[in-house]
Design goal:
Blueprint (H helix, E strand, L loop, with lengths): L5 E2 L6 E3 L7 E3 L6 E7 L2 E4 L15 E2 L3 H6 L4 E4 L7 H4 L1 E4 H4 L14 H10 L4 H4 L9 H4 L15
Parallel strand pairs: 6-7
Antiparallel strand pairs: 1-8, 2-5, 3-4, 4-5, 7-8
Length: 159
């Protein structure tokens, strides 16, 4: 994910935890409250990140022009269709520069690594040969995460 230019609506923060599932988490930076879900030994945000602040409370630049979005070399975000009314449904869309700061998710959380995704995929029933595939992997594991799936991950079917 280091070469990701736009980290679309998949900005899901992850927290490694052996404790019971949290019902919600309040981000101290901006007061946003996020549902969480524990799957196996991992606790994930069950909705997309909506922050406009880095962990040091500095602002992430909101870019609305396509030409600027394509040419920027700094961390930035936008709202789906550049409409803040989409904030709660889709969260913010962050570029790779903002993701790669390591300061996007709330304190104690982080953008999931490939190893984090592999643990989740194994928990959802993927076999080790598929998990070790360096290209696209998976078959139906994403369907388990949709509304009504056994995980309780409340983001609907994204296919």
């Amino acid at each position: 994910m280091k070469k990701v230019i736009l980290f679309l609506s998949l900005t899901i923060c992850y927290f490694f935890s052996f404790s019971q599932a949290q019902v919600s988490f309040k981000d101290a930076r901006d007061g946003e409250v996020y549902k969480t879900v524990t799957i196996g030994t991992q606790t994930w945000f069950a909705e997309n990140l909506r922050t406009t602040l880095y962990t040091d409370s500095s602002e992430i630049k909101n870019i609305t022009e396509n030409s600027e979005w394509k040419s920027t070399t700094i961390g930035a975000f936008c709202w789906y269709n550049n409409d803040i009314a989409n904030k709660n449904q889709y969260g913010a869309l962050y570029n790779g520069y903002s993701v790669n700061t390591g300061n996007l998710c709330p304190s104690g959380w982080h953008v999931p690594t490939d190893d984090d995704w592999k643990i989740l995929e194994k928990q959802l029933g993927m076999n080790q040969n598929e998990i070790d595939n360096i290209k696209l992997r998976g078959t139906i594991q994403g369907n388990v995460l949709k509304v009504g799936g056994s995980s309780g991950f409340d983001q609907g079917n994204r296919i």
